[in-house]
Design brief:
Elements: E1 8-11, E2 23-25, E3 31-33, E4 41-46, H1 55-63, E5 90-98, E6 101-109, H2 118-122, E7 129-132, E8 137-139, H3 149-153, E9 160-162, E10 167-169, H4 175-179, H5 185-189, E11 195-199, H6 200-216, E12 223-225, E13 245-249, H7 269-275, H8 277-300, H9 307-312
Helix pairs in contact: 7-8
């Protein structure tokens, strides 16, 4: 399989076609090259084998060059309440009451790399967010204008704003490592085989194998969380076209108990309206206004001040 430069699928705030060869211009005038595998990539997270060791959290911080930040104790083993601009990967711990007592559910929370990313749809800055043809959605802080519309557009509450730099950050699915033919850093660190990485089709196949195994062992409600995927809309609804990070859940009937995983995620309707019909209506209104001013000038000519009235003043 080739690991050459990847073609860009979509660029935020970009009116024209996408450039080929994975290259695009940054705000500082330099050229950024997006490189990755030339097939749809996917990360599979098996929540039924996660032990909450947090090795993936450490690997993510180390690989991306951030300092280890302060943790927040909230009567749980969870490192902090939610992800942060410099903490892109968080194991969520959730205690759920069941018929048999108490169940402890753990889930790796990170960017889902949606097929139809709400962050990219909402972003007005040219080149601040890039979606590659292999599914990775990457942020380019050099082009970010700090408007935080991407935060509004994300149904998973992932992009985080840095007050110091006025930029937004999130998981990149280790696009730099993937571009070199490597797995994401979190995958390499997982000791239980909870995390897998490969093509989307292979990961869906592995997920189904695991679900069949869980069904055979009495977990009848186990299923895949891959919201909006055309092949799984009946069991995993949503309007984001599927994700390039998918989960095996022990109970797929209620994903929200896994740390607030939305049951049917979608891009907010006002974001779609603003970037769709309202944008076109605004353009039409502006053109109509300019046309009206022009026609008024043609019909009535320039306004002239009455000389007698001018003398009185």
């Amino acid at each position: 399989m080739s690991n050459g430069n990847l073609e860009i699928k979509a660029i935020s705030g970009h009116a024209g076609g996408t450039p080929g060869g994975g290259e695009y211009r940054q705000a500082d005038g330099t050229t950024r090259i997006g490189a990755s595998r030339d097939y749809d990539v996917c990360k599979l997270i098996d929540t039924t084998t996660c032990i909450g060791c947090k090795a993936c959290e450490v690997a993510c911080v180390e690989w991306n060059g951030y300092e280890f930040r302060e943790t927040t104790f909230d009567n749980t083993y969870q490192t902090m309440p939610e992800t942060a601009w410099n903490f892109w990967n968080l194991i969520k711990f959730n205690e759920v009451e069941t018929d048999g007592g108490l169940q402890w559910l753990m889930r790796k929370d990170q960017c889902m790399h949606c097929e139809e990313p709400g962050c990219l749809i909402a972003c007005p800055a040219d080149g601040a967010i890039v979606q590659y043809t292999n599914g990775i959605v990457d942020f380019n802080q050099a082009n970010c204008i700090g408007c935080q519309y991407c935060v509004t557009g994300c149904p998973f509450n992932i992009p985080k704003f840095n007050d110091a730099t006025k930029k937004v950050y999130k998981c990149t699915l280790c696009s730099d490592r993937v571009g070199a033919g490597l797995e994401p850093a979190c995958i390499k660190s997982c000791p239980t085989g909870c995390l897998h990485f490969g093509s989307k089709e292979d990961m869906k196949f592995e997920a189904m194998k695991r679900i069949d195994q869980l069904h055979a062992n009495g977990h009848a409600n186990a299923g895949i969380y891959n919201p909006g995927d055309p092949d799984q809309k009946a069991t995993s609804p949503g309007s984001i076209g599927g994700t390039h990070v998918i989960y095996v859940l022990g109970d797929a009937r209620d994903p929200e108990k896994y740390g607030g995983l939305p049951a049917s995620p979608s891009v907010p309707i006002f974001v779609k309206l603003w970037k769709g019909p309202l944008k076109w209506l605004g353009g039409i209104g502006m053109v109509a206004g300019v046309f009206g001013v022009f026609m008024h000038y043609i019909r009535f000519g320039p306004k002239e001040v009455d000389k007698a009235e001018e003398v009185k003043r």
